[in-house]
Amino acid sequence: MTISARASSAVLATACSAAGLDPSAAEPIRIAENEIWRLPGERAIARIARPGQLAAATREVRVAQWLADNGVPAVRAMSIAQPVDVCGRPVTFWEELPTHTNGTVRDVVQLLKRIHPLPVPDFALGELDPFVRVPERIDAATSLTEEERSWLRQRHEDLQGQWVQRPAGLPDCVVHGDAWVGNVARTAAGPILLDFERVSVGPPEWDLVSTAVKLTTTGAVSRPEYAEFCDLYGLDVTQWEGYELFSGARELRMATYAAQHAATRPEWQEEAQYRVDCLRGRRGPRPWKWTGIM
C-alpha cells in the first residue's frame, strides 16, 4: 500500500491538536512503514506508527524513559500524555536532536556496552522476534515473481525452525534489536541512540550481528572498523557457532525490507531483486554490495 504524505498529515494534525502542539509548519522527514515529521515551531519530531501498534508505541515511550533513568544517551520522548491514538494509528512525540550526522561503528558498540549490562526493566518488553513482519513483507513484495516469494517463505520457515533450537551464547539481556549506524546520531556531545521499536529481551549477539553483516555480507564496514568494534565489545560474533543462523536471519530481513518497498517504488526494484539473487546463490560469494534504499 502506498503511504500518502497528505493522509499522514491529516493524522498528524489530529494528534497535534490532542497533544497541544502546533503542526502548521510540519515537514515530512520520512514517509515509509513509520512516518516521521518535524515540527519546527515545537522543536519536536512526530512519529506515526502503523495501525494496530498502540501497545508497541506505548512501550517505546516507556523504553525512552527507562533509558533516561539509566543515563543512556538516547532520544527523549516529550513530557506529554502519549502516545496519541488517531483512528488506530499511534502517534508519539520526541525532542528534536541538535545538529548531527549518522553514527559510526564505534558509536554503536559504545551504546551497546551501556545497554546490555542493564537489568531488565519492570515493564514487559517482550521476547526478541528476529522475523517480525517478514511474512507481511514477503506478501507485499509484488515486484518479485511468485516463485521468488515462495523461496523466501521457505527460507523464512527454515530459519525460524533453526531459531527455536539456536546455539547457546551470552545470557539474554535487553537488546536494541536494530543496532546499526543509521539508528545512532552523532552530536557534538557524543552519540545518541534512536528507534526503540525493536527493543526487547533476547540474545545480545543479535545486536552484534547487525554490524558484523556489514562486513561479511554487504562489505559496508571495513576490517579495521570491525576489528575495533570487536575489541571494544570483547567478542567477535562471526567466530560464534550461531553466526550463520543469526546473519541469515538478518540478511532475510534486509532482503524482504527492500522487496516490500520495491513494490511501490520502481527505482528500488533492481536492488530488491539483486538481494534475492544474492541469497539464492546467483551472484557469487559474500560480501555483496547491497545499496541502501531509504
Give the helix/strand layout.
Blueprint: H1 5-19, E1 27-31, E2 35-39, E3 44-48, H2 54-69, E4 84-86, E5 89-95, E6 101-102, H3 105-115, H4 134-140, H5 146-164, E7 173-175, E8 184-187, E9 190-193, E10 200-202, H6 205-216, H7 223-233, H8 243-262, H9 269-279
Antiparallel strand pairs: 1-2, 2-3, 3-5, 4-5, 6-8, 7-10, 8-9
Provide structural commentary.
This protein is α+β, with helices and mostly antiparallel strands. The protein has two domains: 11-96, Phosphorylase Kinase, domain 1, CATH 3.30.200.20; 105-279, Aminoglycoside 3'-phosphotransferase, Chain: A, domain 2, CATH 3.90.1200. The protein has nine helices and ten strands. It has helices spanning 5-19, 54-69, 105-115, 134-140, 146-164, 205-216, 223-233, 243-262, 269-279, and strands at 27-31, 35-39, 44-48, 84-86, 89-95, 101-102, 173-175, 184-187, 190-193, 200-202. The strands form three sheets. It has a five-stranded antiparallel beta sheet. Strands 6-8-9 form a three-stranded antiparallel beta sheet, with helices on one face. Strand 1 (27-31) and strand 2 form a beta hairpin. Helix 3 packs parallel to helix 7. The chain is globular, with a radius of gyration of 19 Å. It starts with a helix and ends in a 15-residue tail after the last helix.
In short:
By secondary structure, the protein is of the alpha+beta class.
Number of strands: 10
Shape: globular
Q: So, CATH architecture of the largest domain?
A: Alpha-Beta Complex
Number of domains: 2
- Tally the helices: 9
How large, in whole angstroms, is the Cα Rg? 19 Å
* Biggest sheet layout: 5 strands, antiparallel
Name given to the CATH homologous superfamily of the largest domain: Aminoglycoside phosphotransferase (APH), C-terminal lobe
In angstroms, what separates the terminal alpha carbons?
17 Å
Secondary-structure element pattern, one letter each = HEEEHEEEHHHEEEEHHHH
Mean pLDDT: 95
Q: What percentage of residues falls in helices of 4 or more residues?
A: 40-55%
The fraction of residues in strands falls at 5-15%
Low-confidence stretches: none
Structural class: alpha+beta
Biggest sheet, spatial arrangement of strands: 1-2-3-5-4
Question: And the CATH topology of the largest domain?
Answer: Aminoglycoside 3'-phosphotransferase, Chain: A, domain 2
User: In CATH's first tier, which class of the largest domain applies?
Assistant: Alpha Beta
